Amino acid sequence: MRLITAIIKPFKLEAVKEAFQAIGIDGMTVSEASGYGRQRGHVEVYRGAEYTVDLVPKVRIEILADESDVDRVVDAIVGAARTEKIGDGKVWVTPVERVVRVRTGEQGHDAI
Amino acid sequence: MESINAADTAWLMVCSALVLLMTPGLAMLYGGMVRAKSALNMVLMSFAALAVVTITWIMLGYSLAFGASTWGLVGDLREIGLVDMLDQTYGVEGHKVPMVVFVMFQLTFAVLTTALLSGAIADRAKFGSWVLFTIVWSLVVYAPIAHWAWGFQGGQGGWIGDRLGALDFAGGTVVEINSGASALALALVLGRRIGFRRDPMRPHSLPLVMLGAGLLWFGWLGFNPGSALAADGTAAVALINTQISGAGAILAWLLFEKIRDGKATTFGAASGAIAGLVAITPACGFVTPLGALAIGIAAGLVCAWAVGLKYRLGFDDSLDVVGVHGVGGIVGMLGIGVFAATVANAAGANGLVFGGGFGLLGKQTIAVLGTMVFAFSMTWVIATIIDKTIGFRVDPEDEIAGVDTTQHAESAYDYAGVSGGSVLGAHPVSGQR
Questions:
Q1: The domain B6-190+201-389 is classified under which CATH number: 3.90.850.10, 3.10.580.10, 1.10.3430.10, 1.20.1440.230?
Q2: B-chain residues near A53 (CB < 8 A)
Q3: Are A46 and B202 a contacting pair at CB < 8 A?
Q4: Of B19, B177, B246, B265, which sits most exposed with the smallest number of CB within 10 A?
Protein backbone atom coordinates (compact mmCIF):
# COMPACT_ATOMS: atom_id res chain seq x y z
CA MET A 1 0.00 0.00 0.00
CA ARG A 2 1.42 3.33 -1.03
CA LEU A 3 0.38 6.99 -0.82
CA ILE A 4 1.30 8.92 -3.93
CA THR A 5 1.44 12.68 -3.43
CA ALA A 6 1.89 15.06 -6.32
CA ILE A 7 2.26 18.83 -6.44
CA ILE A 8 1.41 20.11 -9.90
CA LYS A 9 0.47 23.26 -11.76
CA PRO A 10 -3.26 23.98 -11.22
CA PHE A 11 -4.12 24.07 -14.91
CA LYS A 12 -2.70 20.54 -15.34
CA LEU A 13 -5.28 18.96 -13.02
CA GLU A 14 -7.67 18.11 -15.86
CA ALA A 15 -4.91 16.42 -17.87
CA VAL A 16 -3.92 14.30 -14.87
CA LYS A 17 -7.55 13.31 -14.27
CA GLU A 18 -7.85 12.17 -17.87
CA ALA A 19 -4.61 10.22 -17.61
CA PHE A 20 -5.96 8.45 -14.51
CA GLN A 21 -9.17 7.55 -16.28
CA ALA A 22 -7.16 6.10 -19.18
CA ILE A 23 -5.39 3.67 -16.83
CA GLY A 24 -8.48 2.83 -14.82
CA ILE A 25 -7.79 4.77 -11.63
CA ASP A 26 -11.03 6.19 -10.32
CA GLY A 27 -10.48 8.26 -7.23
CA MET A 28 -8.16 10.87 -5.85
CA THR A 29 -8.08 13.68 -3.33
CA VAL A 30 -7.27 17.21 -4.53
CA SER A 31 -6.39 20.22 -2.43
CA GLU A 32 -5.15 23.70 -3.16
CA ALA A 33 -1.61 24.36 -2.09
CA SER A 34 0.91 27.14 -2.41
CA GLY A 35 4.64 27.13 -2.27
CA TYR A 36 7.80 27.64 -4.20
CA GLY A 37 10.79 25.68 -5.32
CA ARG A 38 13.68 26.65 -7.53
CA GLN A 39 11.49 28.82 -9.73
CA ARG A 40 10.68 31.15 -6.79
CA GLY A 41 7.74 33.53 -7.15
CA HIS A 42 6.96 36.43 -9.41
CA VAL A 43 6.96 40.23 -9.22
CA GLU A 44 3.80 42.34 -9.00
CA VAL A 45 3.69 46.15 -9.16
CA TYR A 46 1.14 48.32 -7.33
CA ARG A 47 1.36 52.10 -7.78
CA GLY A 48 4.97 51.61 -8.75
CA ALA A 49 5.87 49.55 -5.65
CA GLU A 50 7.32 46.16 -6.63
CA TYR A 51 6.41 43.16 -4.55
CA THR A 52 7.99 39.74 -4.91
CA VAL A 53 5.25 37.19 -4.45
CA ASP A 54 7.06 34.05 -3.25
CA LEU A 55 4.19 31.61 -2.94
CA VAL A 56 2.87 30.26 -6.22
CA PRO A 57 -0.54 28.54 -6.34
CA LYS A 58 -0.32 24.76 -6.83
CA VAL A 59 -2.61 21.76 -6.67
CA ARG A 60 -1.84 18.78 -4.43
CA ILE A 61 -3.10 15.35 -5.52
CA GLU A 62 -3.17 12.44 -3.10
CA ILE A 63 -3.95 8.92 -4.22
CA LEU A 64 -3.71 5.52 -2.54
CA ALA A 65 -2.51 2.60 -4.69
CA ASP A 66 -1.31 -0.98 -4.47
CA GLU A 67 2.41 -1.35 -4.83
CA SER A 68 1.99 -2.95 -8.25
CA ASP A 69 0.11 0.12 -9.54
CA VAL A 70 2.50 2.75 -8.24
CA ASP A 71 4.69 3.04 -11.31
CA ARG A 72 1.72 3.39 -13.65
CA VAL A 73 0.18 6.09 -11.49
CA VAL A 74 3.41 8.03 -11.13
CA ASP A 75 4.10 7.79 -14.86
CA ALA A 76 0.57 8.99 -15.59
CA ILE A 77 1.00 12.05 -13.38
CA VAL A 78 4.45 12.92 -14.66
CA GLY A 79 3.39 12.42 -18.27
CA ALA A 80 0.26 14.51 -17.95
CA ALA A 81 1.57 17.32 -15.76
CA ARG A 82 4.83 18.00 -17.55
CA THR A 83 5.25 21.26 -19.43
CA GLU A 84 9.07 21.13 -19.37
CA LYS A 85 9.08 24.58 -17.84
CA ILE A 86 10.29 25.43 -14.38
CA GLY A 87 7.69 24.94 -11.63
CA ASP A 88 6.11 21.73 -12.95
CA GLY A 89 6.11 20.27 -9.44
CA LYS A 90 7.05 16.95 -7.79
CA VAL A 91 5.68 13.49 -7.16
CA TRP A 92 6.65 11.30 -4.21
CA VAL A 93 5.60 7.93 -2.84
CA THR A 94 5.34 6.95 0.81
CA PRO A 95 4.47 3.63 2.48
CA VAL A 96 1.05 3.39 4.15
CA GLU A 97 0.47 1.18 7.21
CA ARG A 98 -3.29 0.78 7.17
CA VAL A 99 -6.31 1.87 5.14
CA VAL A 100 -9.98 1.56 6.19
CA ARG A 101 -13.06 2.36 4.11
CA VAL A 102 -15.32 4.31 6.45
CA ARG A 103 -18.65 3.09 5.00
CA THR A 104 -17.98 -0.65 5.14
CA GLY A 105 -15.02 -1.14 7.42
CA GLU A 106 -13.13 -2.93 4.63
CA GLN A 107 -9.38 -2.86 5.09
CA GLY A 108 -6.21 -2.87 3.00
CA HIS A 109 -6.48 -3.69 -0.72
CA ASP A 110 -10.30 -3.89 -0.54
CA ALA A 111 -10.51 -0.38 0.87
CA ILE A 112 -8.78 1.24 -2.08
CA MET B 1 -39.69 81.47 2.53
CA GLU B 2 -38.85 84.13 -0.02
CA SER B 3 -38.89 82.97 -3.62
CA ILE B 4 -36.42 80.24 -4.36
CA ASN B 5 -35.18 79.03 -7.74
CA ALA B 6 -36.75 75.60 -8.20
CA ALA B 7 -34.26 74.38 -10.80
CA ASP B 8 -31.25 75.33 -8.67
CA THR B 9 -32.87 73.79 -5.60
CA ALA B 10 -33.61 70.50 -7.36
CA TRP B 11 -30.10 70.42 -8.82
CA LEU B 12 -28.42 70.96 -5.45
CA MET B 13 -30.59 68.31 -3.81
CA VAL B 14 -29.52 65.82 -6.47
CA CYS B 15 -25.88 66.88 -6.11
CA SER B 16 -26.10 66.36 -2.37
CA ALA B 17 -27.05 62.74 -3.00
CA LEU B 18 -24.31 62.36 -5.62
CA VAL B 19 -21.60 63.72 -3.35
CA LEU B 20 -22.82 61.75 -0.36
CA LEU B 21 -22.39 58.54 -2.37
CA MET B 22 -18.70 59.38 -2.74
CA THR B 23 -18.03 58.47 0.88
CA PRO B 24 -19.31 54.87 0.59
CA GLY B 25 -17.45 54.84 -2.75
CA LEU B 26 -14.28 55.90 -0.96
CA ALA B 27 -14.94 53.17 1.61
CA MET B 28 -14.95 50.60 -1.22
CA LEU B 29 -11.82 52.09 -2.80
CA TYR B 30 -9.92 52.16 0.50
CA GLY B 31 -11.35 48.81 1.61
CA GLY B 32 -10.08 47.12 -1.53
CA MET B 33 -6.65 48.74 -1.24
CA VAL B 34 -5.75 47.27 2.14
CA ARG B 35 -5.04 43.67 3.05
CA ALA B 36 -8.05 41.46 3.80
CA LYS B 37 -7.37 41.60 7.53
CA SER B 38 -8.21 45.32 7.75
CA ALA B 39 -10.81 45.73 5.00
CA LEU B 40 -13.74 46.28 7.37
CA ASN B 41 -11.91 48.75 9.57
CA MET B 42 -11.06 50.77 6.47
CA VAL B 43 -14.70 50.78 5.33
CA LEU B 44 -15.97 51.62 8.79
CA MET B 45 -13.64 54.60 9.21
CA SER B 46 -15.40 56.22 6.23
CA PHE B 47 -18.89 55.37 7.46
CA ALA B 48 -18.00 56.63 10.94
CA ALA B 49 -16.86 59.93 9.41
CA LEU B 50 -20.18 60.08 7.55
CA ALA B 51 -22.10 59.82 10.81
CA VAL B 52 -19.85 61.95 13.01
CA VAL B 53 -19.34 64.84 10.62
CA THR B 54 -23.04 65.01 9.79
CA ILE B 55 -23.65 65.83 13.44
CA THR B 56 -20.65 68.13 13.97
CA TRP B 57 -21.53 70.00 10.77
CA ILE B 58 -25.13 70.82 11.70
CA MET B 59 -24.24 71.53 15.34
CA LEU B 60 -21.23 73.77 14.83
CA GLY B 61 -19.22 73.18 11.64
CA TYR B 62 -21.56 74.93 9.23
CA SER B 63 -21.63 78.03 11.40
CA LEU B 64 -17.84 78.12 11.70
CA ALA B 65 -17.53 77.78 7.92
CA PHE B 66 -20.31 80.05 6.66
CA GLY B 67 -21.17 82.32 9.60
CA ALA B 68 -20.14 85.98 9.67
CA SER B 69 -16.38 86.22 9.30
CA THR B 70 -13.80 87.22 11.90
CA TRP B 71 -10.73 88.59 10.10
CA GLY B 72 -11.36 86.20 7.21
CA LEU B 73 -10.32 83.27 9.39
CA VAL B 74 -13.48 81.68 10.76
CA GLY B 75 -17.23 82.15 10.92
CA ASP B 76 -19.26 82.99 14.01
CA LEU B 77 -21.48 80.82 16.18
CA ARG B 78 -24.89 82.19 15.23
CA GLU B 79 -25.99 79.23 13.12
CA ILE B 80 -25.41 76.56 15.77
CA GLY B 81 -27.78 73.60 15.48
CA LEU B 82 -29.42 75.19 12.41
CA VAL B 83 -31.72 77.01 14.81
CA ASP B 84 -34.14 79.37 13.00
CA MET B 85 -32.71 78.32 9.65
CA LEU B 86 -35.63 76.43 8.14
CA ASP B 87 -37.17 79.51 6.52
CA GLN B 88 -33.87 81.03 5.38
CA THR B 89 -32.44 81.03 1.88
CA TYR B 90 -28.90 81.07 0.49
CA GLY B 91 -27.50 82.39 -2.76
CA VAL B 92 -27.38 85.39 -5.03
CA GLU B 93 -30.55 86.98 -6.37
CA GLY B 94 -32.26 84.71 -8.87
CA HIS B 95 -30.39 81.63 -7.63
CA LYS B 96 -31.70 81.35 -4.09
CA VAL B 97 -32.08 77.89 -2.58
CA PRO B 98 -33.38 76.88 0.84
CA MET B 99 -30.57 77.37 3.35
CA VAL B 100 -30.75 73.77 4.58
CA VAL B 101 -30.17 72.49 1.04
CA PHE B 102 -26.93 74.49 0.95
CA VAL B 103 -26.09 73.17 4.43
CA MET B 104 -26.65 69.60 3.25
CA PHE B 105 -24.64 70.06 0.05
CA GLN B 106 -21.69 71.46 2.03
CA LEU B 107 -22.11 68.75 4.65
CA THR B 108 -21.37 66.06 2.08
CA PHE B 109 -18.02 67.75 1.33
CA ALA B 110 -17.09 67.89 5.01
CA VAL B 111 -17.93 64.19 5.39
CA LEU B 112 -15.90 63.11 2.37
CA THR B 113 -12.85 65.22 3.23
CA THR B 114 -12.73 63.84 6.76
CA ALA B 115 -13.11 60.26 5.50
CA LEU B 116 -10.24 60.82 3.04
CA LEU B 117 -7.76 61.15 5.91
CA SER B 118 -8.31 57.56 7.03
CA GLY B 119 -6.21 56.42 4.08
CA ALA B 120 -3.08 57.71 5.80
CA ILE B 121 -3.51 55.49 8.86
CA ALA B 122 -4.71 52.18 7.39
CA ASP B 123 -4.19 48.95 9.34
CA ARG B 124 -3.13 50.53 12.65
CA ALA B 125 -5.52 53.08 14.21
CA LYS B 126 -7.65 52.63 17.30
CA PHE B 127 -11.22 53.05 16.14
CA GLY B 128 -12.34 55.13 19.11
CA SER B 129 -9.41 57.49 18.64
CA TRP B 130 -10.35 57.90 14.98
CA VAL B 131 -13.92 58.82 15.94
CA LEU B 132 -12.65 61.40 18.43
CA PHE B 133 -10.25 62.75 15.82
CA THR B 134 -13.01 63.22 13.25
CA ILE B 135 -15.08 65.26 15.72
CA VAL B 136 -12.24 67.66 16.45
CA TRP B 137 -10.73 67.78 12.96
CA SER B 138 -14.01 68.52 11.16
CA LEU B 139 -14.51 71.58 13.39
CA VAL B 140 -10.98 72.85 13.97
CA VAL B 141 -9.40 72.22 10.56
CA TYR B 142 -12.08 71.62 7.92
CA ALA B 143 -14.58 74.32 8.87
CA PRO B 144 -12.06 77.20 8.96
CA ILE B 145 -10.51 76.23 5.60
CA ALA B 146 -13.99 75.95 4.05
CA HIS B 147 -14.57 79.46 5.40
CA TRP B 148 -11.32 80.73 3.87
CA ALA B 149 -12.15 79.52 0.38
CA TRP B 150 -15.94 79.71 0.21
CA GLY B 151 -17.10 82.17 2.88
CA PHE B 152 -18.14 84.86 0.42
CA GLN B 153 -19.44 87.90 2.28
CA GLY B 154 -18.92 90.80 -0.10
CA GLY B 155 -15.18 91.09 0.42
CA GLN B 156 -15.48 90.70 4.17
CA GLY B 157 -15.53 86.88 4.17
CA GLY B 158 -12.85 84.18 4.00
CA TRP B 159 -9.31 85.35 3.25
CA ILE B 160 -8.53 83.01 0.36
CA GLY B 161 -11.68 83.35 -1.75
CA ASP B 162 -13.26 86.60 -0.70
CA ARG B 163 -10.27 88.81 0.18
CA LEU B 164 -7.19 87.46 -1.64
CA GLY B 165 -9.23 86.49 -4.70
CA ALA B 166 -7.62 83.10 -5.26
CA LEU B 167 -9.90 80.72 -7.19
CA ASP B 168 -11.06 77.37 -5.84
CA PHE B 169 -14.22 76.18 -7.54
CA ALA B 170 -14.99 72.91 -5.75
CA GLY B 171 -12.34 72.30 -3.13
CA GLY B 172 -8.72 72.17 -4.31
CA THR B 173 -7.72 73.76 -1.02
CA VAL B 174 -10.68 72.81 1.18
CA VAL B 175 -10.88 69.16 0.20
CA GLU B 176 -7.74 68.06 -1.62
CA ILE B 177 -4.74 69.97 -0.30
CA ASN B 178 -6.32 70.05 3.14
CA SER B 179 -6.72 66.26 3.21
CA GLY B 180 -3.27 65.70 1.73
CA ALA B 181 -1.43 67.89 4.22
CA SER B 182 -3.48 66.56 7.13
CA ALA B 183 -2.87 62.99 6.00
CA LEU B 184 0.87 63.61 6.05
CA ALA B 185 0.66 64.84 9.64
CA LEU B 186 -1.46 61.84 10.67
CA ALA B 187 0.94 59.39 9.01
CA LEU B 188 3.89 60.99 10.82
CA VAL B 189 2.20 60.97 14.24
CA LEU B 190 1.06 57.34 14.00
CA GLY B 191 4.28 56.13 12.41
CA ARG B 192 4.88 53.39 9.88
CA ARG B 193 3.02 50.13 9.81
CA ILE B 194 4.91 47.07 11.03
CA GLY B 195 6.61 45.68 7.94
CA PHE B 196 6.42 48.88 5.88
CA ARG B 197 8.86 48.63 2.94
CA ARG B 198 9.56 45.00 3.95
CA ASP B 199 6.32 43.01 3.69
CA PRO B 200 4.15 42.89 0.60
CA MET B 201 1.02 44.93 1.35
CA ARG B 202 -0.94 44.23 -1.78
CA PRO B 203 -4.45 45.59 -2.34
CA HIS B 204 -6.62 42.59 -1.42
CA SER B 205 -9.38 43.36 -3.94
CA LEU B 206 -8.76 45.39 -7.06
CA PRO B 207 -12.33 44.86 -8.32
CA LEU B 208 -13.50 46.59 -5.13
CA VAL B 209 -11.02 49.40 -5.85
CA MET B 210 -12.45 49.80 -9.35
CA LEU B 211 -16.01 49.85 -8.02
CA GLY B 212 -15.01 52.54 -5.54
CA ALA B 213 -13.29 54.59 -8.23
CA GLY B 214 -16.40 54.34 -10.40
CA LEU B 215 -18.67 55.49 -7.58
CA LEU B 216 -16.31 58.38 -6.84
CA TRP B 217 -16.34 59.46 -10.48
CA PHE B 218 -20.15 59.31 -10.53
CA GLY B 219 -20.34 61.42 -7.39
CA TRP B 220 -17.74 63.85 -8.70
CA LEU B 221 -20.19 64.82 -11.44
CA GLY B 222 -22.24 66.34 -8.62
CA PHE B 223 -19.30 67.50 -6.52
CA ASN B 224 -17.79 69.77 -9.18
CA PRO B 225 -20.77 71.02 -11.23
CA GLY B 226 -22.85 71.33 -8.06
CA SER B 227 -20.31 73.79 -6.72
CA ALA B 228 -21.69 76.30 -9.21
CA LEU B 229 -24.58 76.39 -6.70
CA ALA B 230 -26.89 76.79 -9.68
CA ALA B 231 -28.10 74.75 -12.63
CA ASP B 232 -26.43 77.09 -15.09
CA GLY B 233 -23.78 77.39 -17.78
CA THR B 234 -20.92 77.39 -15.30
CA ALA B 235 -22.15 74.07 -13.92
CA ALA B 236 -22.16 72.73 -17.47
CA VAL B 237 -18.56 73.85 -18.02
CA ALA B 238 -17.57 72.19 -14.74
CA LEU B 239 -19.34 68.99 -15.80
CA ILE B 240 -17.56 68.52 -19.11
CA ASN B 241 -14.20 69.62 -17.66
CA THR B 242 -14.47 67.06 -14.86
CA GLN B 243 -15.06 64.28 -17.34
CA ILE B 244 -12.18 65.36 -19.61
CA SER B 245 -9.63 65.66 -16.81
CA GLY B 246 -10.45 62.24 -15.35
CA ALA B 247 -10.06 60.62 -18.77
CA GLY B 248 -6.80 62.41 -19.57
CA ALA B 249 -5.29 61.45 -16.23
CA ILE B 250 -6.13 57.74 -16.64
CA LEU B 251 -4.28 57.64 -19.94
CA ALA B 252 -1.35 59.66 -18.59
CA TRP B 253 -0.97 57.40 -15.53
CA LEU B 254 -1.13 54.22 -17.63
CA LEU B 255 1.44 55.58 -20.06
CA PHE B 256 3.73 56.55 -17.19
CA GLU B 257 3.48 53.03 -15.74
CA LYS B 258 3.98 51.37 -19.08
CA ILE B 259 7.18 53.30 -19.65
CA ARG B 260 8.56 53.05 -16.11
CA ASP B 261 7.35 49.64 -14.90
CA GLY B 262 6.67 47.83 -18.17
CA LYS B 263 2.94 47.21 -17.63
CA ALA B 264 -0.24 49.30 -17.46
CA THR B 265 -2.30 48.29 -14.42
CA THR B 266 -5.92 48.41 -13.26
CA PHE B 267 -4.80 50.03 -10.02
CA GLY B 268 -3.03 52.65 -12.12
CA ALA B 269 -6.26 53.36 -14.02
CA ALA B 270 -8.19 53.86 -10.77
CA SER B 271 -5.43 56.05 -9.36
CA GLY B 272 -5.17 58.08 -12.54
CA ALA B 273 -8.92 58.69 -12.63
CA ILE B 274 -8.90 59.98 -9.08
CA ALA B 275 -5.79 62.10 -9.62
CA GLY B 276 -7.42 63.76 -12.63
CA LEU B 277 -10.71 64.35 -10.83
CA VAL B 278 -8.84 65.77 -7.83
CA ALA B 279 -6.82 68.17 -9.95
CA ILE B 280 -9.79 69.51 -11.90
CA THR B 281 -11.79 70.05 -8.69
CA PRO B 282 -10.60 73.62 -8.06
CA ALA B 283 -10.28 74.42 -11.76
CA CYS B 284 -13.40 72.87 -13.32
CA GLY B 285 -15.43 76.09 -13.35
CA PHE B 286 -12.64 78.37 -14.56
CA VAL B 287 -10.84 76.63 -17.44
CA THR B 288 -11.65 75.61 -20.99
CA PRO B 289 -12.02 71.94 -22.02
CA LEU B 290 -8.49 71.93 -23.44
CA GLY B 291 -7.22 73.47 -20.22
CA ALA B 292 -8.97 70.66 -18.34
CA LEU B 293 -7.25 68.11 -20.56
CA ALA B 294 -3.86 69.68 -19.84
CA ILE B 295 -4.53 69.69 -16.10
CA GLY B 296 -5.69 66.05 -16.20
CA ILE B 297 -2.62 64.86 -18.10
CA ALA B 298 -0.34 66.80 -15.77
CA ALA B 299 -2.06 65.34 -12.71
CA GLY B 300 -1.80 61.78 -14.05
CA LEU B 301 1.94 62.10 -14.65
CA VAL B 302 2.84 64.06 -11.51
CA CYS B 303 0.75 61.92 -9.13
CA ALA B 304 2.00 58.65 -10.64
CA TRP B 305 5.48 59.86 -9.76
CA ALA B 306 4.49 61.33 -6.38
CA VAL B 307 2.99 58.14 -4.92
CA GLY B 308 6.49 56.68 -4.86
CA LEU B 309 7.83 59.44 -2.61
CA LYS B 310 6.68 57.76 0.61
CA TYR B 311 9.04 54.85 0.04
CA ARG B 312 11.97 57.14 -0.59
CA LEU B 313 11.21 59.56 2.25
CA GLY B 314 9.98 56.87 4.63
CA PHE B 315 6.54 58.13 5.69
CA ASP B 316 3.75 55.55 5.60
CA ASP B 317 0.86 57.42 4.01
CA SER B 318 -0.63 53.99 3.44
CA LEU B 319 -3.16 54.67 0.68
CA ASP B 320 -1.44 57.72 -0.88
CA VAL B 321 -3.66 60.56 0.30
CA VAL B 322 -0.63 62.86 0.05
CA GLY B 323 0.49 61.64 -3.36
CA VAL B 324 -2.95 61.72 -4.98
CA HIS B 325 -5.06 64.32 -3.15
CA GLY B 326 -2.34 66.63 -1.85
CA VAL B 327 -0.22 66.66 -4.98
CA GLY B 328 -3.22 66.47 -7.34
CA GLY B 329 -4.82 69.42 -5.51
CA ILE B 330 -1.66 71.48 -5.93
CA VAL B 331 -1.52 70.65 -9.65
CA GLY B 332 -5.12 71.86 -9.99
CA MET B 333 -4.73 75.02 -7.90
CA LEU B 334 -1.60 76.08 -9.77
CA GLY B 335 -3.17 74.90 -13.04
CA ILE B 336 -5.82 77.59 -12.54
CA GLY B 337 -3.06 80.19 -12.49
CA VAL B 338 -1.91 78.91 -15.87
CA PHE B 339 -5.11 77.89 -17.69
CA ALA B 340 -7.94 79.98 -16.21
CA ALA B 341 -9.90 81.80 -18.90
CA THR B 342 -12.74 84.28 -18.68
CA VAL B 343 -14.25 82.70 -21.78
CA ALA B 344 -15.02 79.69 -19.57
CA ASN B 345 -16.37 81.77 -16.70
CA ALA B 346 -16.79 85.53 -16.82
CA ALA B 347 -16.69 85.63 -13.03
CA GLY B 348 -13.26 83.94 -13.06
CA ALA B 349 -9.97 85.35 -14.31
CA ASN B 350 -7.33 84.90 -16.97
CA GLY B 351 -4.27 82.80 -16.19
CA LEU B 352 -0.81 82.82 -17.68
CA VAL B 353 -1.61 81.41 -21.12
CA PHE B 354 -4.63 83.69 -21.55
CA GLY B 355 -2.66 86.85 -20.95
CA GLY B 356 -3.46 87.26 -17.26
CA GLY B 357 0.17 87.42 -16.21
CA PHE B 358 1.56 85.98 -13.01
CA GLY B 359 -0.86 87.70 -10.64
CA LEU B 360 -3.37 84.87 -10.44
CA LEU B 361 -0.64 82.23 -10.19
CA GLY B 362 0.77 84.13 -7.22
CA LYS B 363 -2.58 84.22 -5.45
CA GLN B 364 -3.09 80.51 -6.10
CA THR B 365 0.35 79.78 -4.65
CA ILE B 366 -0.43 81.74 -1.49
CA ALA B 367 -3.71 79.85 -1.08
CA VAL B 368 -1.91 76.52 -1.49
CA LEU B 369 0.79 77.37 1.04
CA GLY B 370 -1.63 78.81 3.59
CA THR B 371 -3.81 75.71 3.43
CA MET B 372 -0.85 73.34 3.67
CA VAL B 373 0.72 75.02 6.68
CA PHE B 374 -2.52 75.34 8.65
CA ALA B 375 -3.82 71.84 7.84
CA PHE B 376 -0.52 70.13 8.55
CA SER B 377 0.26 71.90 11.81
CA MET B 378 -3.24 71.78 13.28
CA THR B 379 -3.70 68.13 12.39
CA TRP B 380 -0.30 67.30 13.84
CA VAL B 381 -1.28 68.97 17.12
CA ILE B 382 -4.70 67.26 17.32
CA ALA B 383 -3.32 63.82 16.46
CA THR B 384 -0.39 64.21 18.87
CA ILE B 385 -2.68 65.16 21.76
CA ILE B 386 -4.88 62.13 21.07
CA ASP B 387 -1.82 59.91 20.75
CA LYS B 388 -0.27 61.12 24.04
CA THR B 389 -3.51 60.79 26.00
CA ILE B 390 -5.75 57.91 24.92
CA GLY B 391 -3.36 56.54 22.27
CA PHE B 392 -3.98 56.58 18.53
CA ARG B 393 -2.28 53.35 17.52
CA VAL B 394 -3.18 49.75 18.33
CA ASP B 395 -0.78 47.35 20.08
CA PRO B 396 1.71 45.59 17.79
CA GLU B 397 0.08 42.19 18.38
CA ASP B 398 -3.31 43.59 17.41
CA GLU B 399 -1.85 45.25 14.33
CA ILE B 400 -0.28 41.99 13.17
CA ALA B 401 -3.45 40.00 13.87
CA GLY B 402 -5.43 42.63 11.96
CA VAL B 403 -7.59 45.52 13.10
CA ASP B 404 -10.80 43.91 11.80
CA THR B 405 -10.78 41.21 14.45
CA THR B 406 -9.02 43.17 17.19
CA GLN B 407 -10.95 46.46 16.83
CA HIS B 408 -14.33 45.19 15.65
CA ALA B 409 -14.48 41.42 16.31
CA GLU B 410 -15.43 40.84 12.66
CA SER B 411 -13.80 39.52 9.53
CA ALA B 412 -14.60 40.67 6.02
CA TYR B 413 -14.64 37.30 4.32
CA ASP B 414 -15.63 33.77 5.24
CA TYR B 415 -13.70 31.29 3.18
CA ALA B 416 -14.36 28.44 5.62
CA GLY B 417 -15.26 25.87 2.97
CA VAL B 418 -14.81 22.97 5.38
CA SER B 419 -17.63 24.10 7.65
CA GLY B 420 -19.86 25.46 4.89
CA GLY B 421 -19.48 29.05 6.00
CA SER B 422 -19.97 28.69 9.72
CA VAL B 423 -17.11 28.83 12.16
CA LEU B 424 -16.65 25.40 13.69
CA GLY B 425 -17.40 25.33 17.39
CA ALA B 426 -19.08 28.73 17.64
CA HIS B 427 -22.76 28.97 18.52
CA PRO B 428 -25.04 31.95 18.04
CA VAL B 429 -26.61 33.95 20.87
CA SER B 430 -24.88 32.19 23.76
CA GLY B 431 -21.52 31.75 22.12
CA GLN B 432 -21.20 28.50 24.04
CA ARG B 433 -18.92 25.80 22.77
A1: 1.10.3430.10
A2: 200, 202
A3: yes
A4: B265
